[in-house]
């Protein structure tokens, strides 16, 4: 297809970031502690990566593996520190105990970003009602992307949902871009690209040696070549 697809790669440090850019990544998701599914990196890490690469960065705003009301206060302060370190785009998302979007928490954190663009992350895949979540977030300042596998179990299970949501692009709650990630493989791409999905997120797929090893520029370049066909 002629339209260049966005390739986002998870980066934990400067080495990852440099390799991802060299391989053709368009954007990085910056996190720490991948064993906890990715938490907020330090301001020093963000500043170091911002100085090392010139592609877009989206910084995770997630303080703990789980979420408590007090975390919002922490994130409001952390968001300011990260912006001072050069962060201009973010990743966030909170659910309540019933699996609905914690709208108050999302609005408060998004409100201190002063219009910065942000992704609602894979919390959507754990929501009790995906459609309701999308519609509750409709029109929220800065929200331009949903990172999703279509299912908490990953893209294999979620592919039908992803294709169905892609067909609804432009409806209320479905204007933000779909960024597919979570067990994504190269063989998933043809169906997703045919459906009009144009943004893809990889983590482990960029690391041939697993999460204990760094991002491989060669692995990222392979995804770039396939997406550019």
TrEMBL record:
<dbReference type="GO" id="GO:0005507">
    <property type="term" value="F:copper ion binding"/>
</dbReference>
<dbReference type="InterPro" id="IPR005627">
    <property type="entry name" value="CutC-like"/>
</dbReference>
<dbReference type="InterPro" id="IPR036822">
    <property type="entry name" value="CutC-like_dom_sf"/>
</dbReference>
<comment type="similarity">
    <text>Belongs to the CutC family.</text>
</comment>
<dbReference type="Pfam" id="PF03932">
    <property type="entry name" value="CutC"/>
</dbReference>
<protein>
    <recommendedName>
        <fullName>Copper homeostasis protein cutC homolog</fullName>
    </recommendedName>
</protein>
């Amino acid at each position: 297809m002629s339209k260049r697809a966005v390739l986002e790669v998870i980066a934990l440090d400067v080495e990852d970031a440099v390799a991802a850019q060299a391989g053709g990544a368009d954007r990085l998701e910056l996190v720490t502690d991948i064993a906890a599914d990715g938490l907020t990196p330090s301001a020093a890490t963000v500043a170091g990566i911002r100085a090392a690469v010139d592609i877009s960065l989206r910084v995770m705003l997630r303080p703990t593996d789980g979420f408590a009301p007090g975390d919002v206060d922490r994130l409001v302060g952390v968001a300011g520190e990260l912006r001072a370190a050069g962060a201009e785009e973010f990743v966030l998302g909170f659910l309540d105990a019933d699996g609905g979007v914690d709208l108050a928490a999302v609005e408060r954190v998004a409100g201190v970003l002063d219009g910065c663009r942000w992704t609602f992350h894979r919390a959507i895949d754990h929501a009790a009602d995906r459609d309701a979540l999308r519609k509750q977030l409709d029109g929220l300042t800065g929200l331009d992307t949903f990172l999703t596998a279509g299912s908490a179990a990953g893209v294999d299970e979620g592919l039908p949902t992803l294709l169905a949501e892609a067909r609804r692009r432009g409806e209320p709650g479905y204007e933000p871009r779909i960024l597919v990630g979570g067990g994504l493989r190269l063989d998933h791409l043809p169906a997703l690209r045919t459906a009009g999905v144009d943004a893809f997120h990889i983590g482990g797929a960029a690391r041939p040696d697993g999460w204990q090893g760094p991002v491989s520029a060669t692995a990222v370049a392979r995804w770039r070549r396939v997406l550019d066909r």
